[in-house]
């Protein structure tokens, strides 16, 4: 019965057995359980089946919508309807033997879980779990941001190194152009010196031939004189020949006087001689003038060559000046690139913007971490839950001792905030739960169960009218103990109490009704 009840409500048997062991081993057929109960004004029915998988929750005759995940459906049943989990149910509703673990035999962690569930403060544990997840998420996000920030810093450093290297390369290139400009200006200066020196030579050459015009004119004059003298000489020779070959005048045909003829011949010969001498002298002077003109021509050729050299040097200077202008323009371009690199600057600005964004987000996460750490401090076991438990511990201890006294077991029982027990008996030292007999342990267990029911009702988180005692009266409790227990249970108002016992015949007069089970052909059934 208890296996069926726990399984249908919590999908877990009451006993420590595997799910397959719930199935009847005789016929091996599927297992199905149904339970109906009321919470307030609502009527509920829960159906669970195995091997023909069924899990249904009915409210007021209508099936509640089933989420995709069966676990979520179970959460609805436990948290929204029963408001009990398996551990709390087996501590508040069922007091059993066999595989049941009494509260005092639970580990401290499980004790805390039962109390938190009863006091309805398990939400803080859930919040703490969620908070741990958020803390882990915060830590991961901070780690990711630190990685992103480091990555951006490295990228900025790489870009700055690139800019630095680029500036060094540009400085080197500018220096090379400046060196080429300096070299070109040096060449032009040297060319200018050569032009000056060459012009000086030309000036000296011009000084040497400054008589060119005079010589040329004299040469032309002499040539003209020679021509005239030669004409005169030719005329004189014709005249001389005439007088030497003619005795009569060709015009008047008179005989030429010998004396006159002799005089004419003599004067003509003398004139020819004078003319010949003059021509000879002029030829000599002309020869000298031609020699001078040749010297002048040679000098003029030298001047022409020097002038060509000057023209070439001037052309070279202009060409070099143009090259220097080009170099200077390239230096200006390089200087602009050195001062600003738009592509790299945009990339660095973007990286700095990313860095600022990451840093801002990290700062926000750091502030969030402070809040989360504060929340974690409040939600941990020594935080707000302990403060709430601290308020209930005196009430719990008072109720436990009240029920122990009602069960004729006079000890001073105390639980601390960590749910460790301290039990003092009169005229005895401190005891622990394990120090007592099984009967005394049973009374402590019953007192604790009744205390949990009272605390749950006081807290208004769980108020149940169901109480199941499994073989509590069968062992460890003598007849006097049974009377005491029954007196205590009879004081529980509005409680439906089920007592499972193998001594039903001895207790039939103590209960309103009795349900008897018997085995027939390996099957348990309610006896007629």
Strand-helix topology:
Blueprint: H1 2-10, E1 31-39, E2 42-50, E3 54-59, E4 62-63, H2 70-82, H3 86-92, E5 94-95, H4 108-118, H5 122-208, H6 212-245, H7 258-339, H8 342-379, H9 384-406, E6 411-415, E7 421-425, E8 430-431, H10 438-459, E9 466-470, H11 479-490, E10 496-500, H12 504-507, E11 517-520, E12 523-526
Parallel strand pairs: 5-9, 9-10
Antiparallel strand pairs: 1-2, 2-3, 3-4, 6-7, 7-8, 11-12
Helix pairs in contact: 5-7, 5-8, 6-7, 9-10
Task: Figure out the total of helices.
Answer: 12
> Structural class of the secondary structure composition?
alpha+beta
Strand order of the largest sheet: 1-2-3-4
Indicate the overall shape.
rod-shaped
| Counted beta strands | 12
Q: Residue share in helices?
A: 55-70%
Which ranges are low-confidence, i.e. pLDDT below 50, for 5 or more consecutive residues? none
Beta-strand percentage range: 5-15%
């Amino acid at each position: 019965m208890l296996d069926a009840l726990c399984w249908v409500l919590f999908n877990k048997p009451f006993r420590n057995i595997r799910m397959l062991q719930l199935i009847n081993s005789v016929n091996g057929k599927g297992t199905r359980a149904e339970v109906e109960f009321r919470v307030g004004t609502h009527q509920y029915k829960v159906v669970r089946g195995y091997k023909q998988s069924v899990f249904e929750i009915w409210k007021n005759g209508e099936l509640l919508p089933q989420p995709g995940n069966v676990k979520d459906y179970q959460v609805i049943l436990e948290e929204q309807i029963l408001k009990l989990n398996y551990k709390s149910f087996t501590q508040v509703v069922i007091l059993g033997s066999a595989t049941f673990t009494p509260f005092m035999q639970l580990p401290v962690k499980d004790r805390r879980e039962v109390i938190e569930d009863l006091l309805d403060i398990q939400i803080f544990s859930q919040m703490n779990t969620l908070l741990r997840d958020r803390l882990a998420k915060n830590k991961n996000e901070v780690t990711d941001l630190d990685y992103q920030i480091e990555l951006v810093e490295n990228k900025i450093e790489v870009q700055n190194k690139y800019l630095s290297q680029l500036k060094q390369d540009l400085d080197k290139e500018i220096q090379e152009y400046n060196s080429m400009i300096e070299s070109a200006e040096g060449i032009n200066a040297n060319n200018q010196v050569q032009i000056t020196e060459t012009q000086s030579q030309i000036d000296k050459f011009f000084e040497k031939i400054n008589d060119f015009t005079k010589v040329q004119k004299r040469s032309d004059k002499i040539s003209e004189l020679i021509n005239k003298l030669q004409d005169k000489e030719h005329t004189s020779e014709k005249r001389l020949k005439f007088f030497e070959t003619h005795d009569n005048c060709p015009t008047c045909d008179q005989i030429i006087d010998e004396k006159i003829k002799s005089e004419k011949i003599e004067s003509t010969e003398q004139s020819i001689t004078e003319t010949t001498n003059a021509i000879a002298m002029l030829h000599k002077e002309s020869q000298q003038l031609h020699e001078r003109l040749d010297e002048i021509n040679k000098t003029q050729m030298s001047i022409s060559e020097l002038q060509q050299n000057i023209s070439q040097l001037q052309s070279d200077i202009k060409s070099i000046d143009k090259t220097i202008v080009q170099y200077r323009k390239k230096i200006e371009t390089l200087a602009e690139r050195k001062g600003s690199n738009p592509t790299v600057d945009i990339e660095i600005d973007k990286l700095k913007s990313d860095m600022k964004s990451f840093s801002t987000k990290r700062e926000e996460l750091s502030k969030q971490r402070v809040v989360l750490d504060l929340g974690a401090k409040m939600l941990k076991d020594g935080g707000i839950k302990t403060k709430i438990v601290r308020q209930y511990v005196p009430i719990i201890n008072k109720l436990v001792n009240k029920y122990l006294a009602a069960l004729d077991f006079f000890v001073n029982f105390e639980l601390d905030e960590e749910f460790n027990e301290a039990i003092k008996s009169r005229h005895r030292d401190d005891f622990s739960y394990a120090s007592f007999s099984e009967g005394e342990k049973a009374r402590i267990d019953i007192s604790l169960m009744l205390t949990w029911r009272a605390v749950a009702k006081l807290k208004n988180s769980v108020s149940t009218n169901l109480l199941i005692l499994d073989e509590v009266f069968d062992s460890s409790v003598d007849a006097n103990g049974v009377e005491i227990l029954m007196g205590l249970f009879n004081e529980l108002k509005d409680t439906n109490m089920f007592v499972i016992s193998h001594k039903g015949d001895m207790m039939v007069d103590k209960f309103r009704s009795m349900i008897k089970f018997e085995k027939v052909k390996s099957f348990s059934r309610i006896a007629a």
